[in-house]
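Homework help board

Subject: predicted structure for assignment chain

Our instructor gave us this sequence and asked us to write out the predicted structure in token form, then describe one feature. I got the tokens but I'm not sure how to describe them. Can anyone check?
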Amino acid sequence: MRTTNKMIKLVYKPFSTYRNIRFLSGSERQFYDANTQYFNPDRRLDPLVILVECGVTDPHGFKTGLVNQHLTDVKWKISESGVLKDILPTDTEFVIGTGVDKGWLKIFKNIADTESATLIFTAKYFDIDSKRTAHFQQSFVLLTTPTAVSPAVLETNCPHGENLFLTQNKAGLVVQAQLFRETSVLPAAYYWYKNGVEITDSGGYLNSKSSRLFVPASEISQTGTVITVEVADCSNDLKNLNQDGNLPPELPANYRPDQKPAKVYKGDFLLMKKYPKYQEEILITQGGINPSVTFVEAEMIINTCEGTLKNPENAFSVGWLKQPDGRFLYKGFKIKIPIEKIVELHSQNKQLDVELREDLTLKE
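My token output:
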């Protein structure tokens, strides 16, 4: 009579997440009177209060509803003039909700009328019972409109989204800015920056003097890349191009004045690389138990909800058998290991260790 044991593994489907954005008081848009130098509303007196309600929907029906009080790794950031910084509990211009008020933020900060500010909220929810994690992210743009004159307003957008999903083999993302007065697009000059350094048509960037900048995938990071744009109103420049009495319909392509104007309108974009949920798997495609073979062929594959990932070496890198000095004996998704090395590992009761990285630092 023989008895055996079998571990039964519960496989849970991932949560679906949703967010409800509530403005509890104040306004995300301010008006600034250049004559009186007053903000309306003045957030020092009438703060803006935002609540991001975070919820999950469980396909199994176990955990469903709002989970704000159980959120972890709650972070608020603000991006101004191309600089992304954390909002800390000690900041006097903000109050961050805690406990049952997680996802809540009170803002006392007034935003200058020449630039927009982007607020970014991120958090996680971890279900202890099923070991599932849900991620939440939300951004808000705070705008200030001058009211002393007919205002010029900078509108920014990302036609293909702010997230670069590498498994879709995208080459990069496009960011766009246009300057409006009421419903008319103003003639303008565009200056694009990353980390305070002006972007040119090099390193994969394209159209760096136009309203649409192409940002290559190599310039976008997982932690977030901030691209800043400064736009100058060139309405007077267009009038000055009237050499023969006929007003040209628009500025020449990639137009820049001889000197960058002092007054510019600023905006910024937070671009991020995203990876899908995946599970790596190691396949022994030749030998593995037969000591008479000369080598063992090992391969790592990456499985996603859409199937086995094609060309994983474009976004990941793999190292095998890490040595004491930190180097790896083999690199790549598919390798051949001499049977002598396998016998040596077996005699030392060691396993075939492998490290997968979400970058190309281990690529040969």
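Reply (TA_rk): Your tokens look well-formed. For the description, you could write something like this. The helical segments are 235-240, 339-347. That's the kind of observation they're looking for.
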